[in-house]
Amino acid sequence: MTSSPLQDIKAVLFDLDGTLFDRETAVRDVVTGQYEAFSGELAGVPQERFVRRVLELDAHGYGDKAEVYPRVVRELGLPEALAAALTAHFWEAYARVAPALPGAHSTLAALRGRGHRLGIVTNGRVSVQEGKLRSLGVLDAVDAVLISEREQLRKPDPALFRRAVERLGLRAHEACYVGDHPVKDVRGAHDAGLKAVWLRTPHFPAPEVAHTAIGALGELLTLL
């Protein structure tokens, strides 16, 4: 019988967006609602065209947020001032939605029940990411949360992953990290000495250095 690549793991660290938080659903819902909220200003622009272009420029969370709406309004021939209103509306609405990926809550609860230490390591602004965590109801389910703005480090910097493990009182090889991005999550965790677990997604190519890959969060329970 082949041993698990996650044998003897004592802590599981998670990415947030695209791993615990269903960002794809959240953003699509926000942008679709935006079209309705700005129906007067966007009159004459097909909804499908507006939503598709915003999502393309958002690039699954890796597009330059400061450029998304200015570029959209330029391309659609809309008043330049509309970009700021759309940007502000996006962040306000985005803070109110919190869809979890399937298995997120049950997997955290099961791992906690088995005695694993848990943490979240995410890039982003503290106000936005903590808002998601509160809405998801997972802040009390984990032992440590590291957000790039507060830590002054960003994934894939291995130092951020090492800091997370240290806060859990463990060593890097005793922890695994689960994320969907092949570089910021998988490469960063791998280079820090953690076991890197890729949560498969059609949005990004398969990483070169993952210790293992899963198709759903619940699969972790069979590996640990």
Which whole number gives the mean pLDDT? 94
What is the distance, rounded to the nearest whole angstrom, between the alpha carbons of the first and last residues? 15 Å
Profile the largest sheet.
6 strands, parallel
Rough outline: elongated
Helix content: 40-55%
- Given helix and strand content, the structural type is alpha/beta
Helix-strand string: EHHHHHEHEHHEHEEH
> Which regions have little confidence, pLDDT < 50, spanning 5+ residues?
none
CA radius of gyration: 19 Å
For the biggest β-sheet, the strand order reads 3-2-1-4-5-6
Structure characterization notes:
The protein is built from ten helices and six strands, in the order βαααααβαβααβαββα. Helix 1 (23-37) packs across helix 4 and helix 8 packs across helix 9. It has a six-stranded parallel beta sheet with strand order 3-2-1-4-5-6, with helices on both faces. It is an alpha/beta fold and 224 residues long. The model has no long low-confidence stretch (mean pLDDT 94).
Features:
10 helices, 12% strand, alpha/beta
Secondary-structure topology with pairs:
Blueprint: E1 11-14, H1 23-37, H2 47-58, H3 65-76, H4 82-94, H5 104-113, E2 117-122, H6 126-136, E3 144-147, H7 148-151, H8 158-167, E4 175-179, H9 182-192, E5 195-199, E6 212-214, H10 220-223
Parallel strand pairs: 1-2, 1-4, 2-3, 4-5, 5-6
Helix pairs in contact: 1-2, 1-4, 2-3, 3-4, 8-9
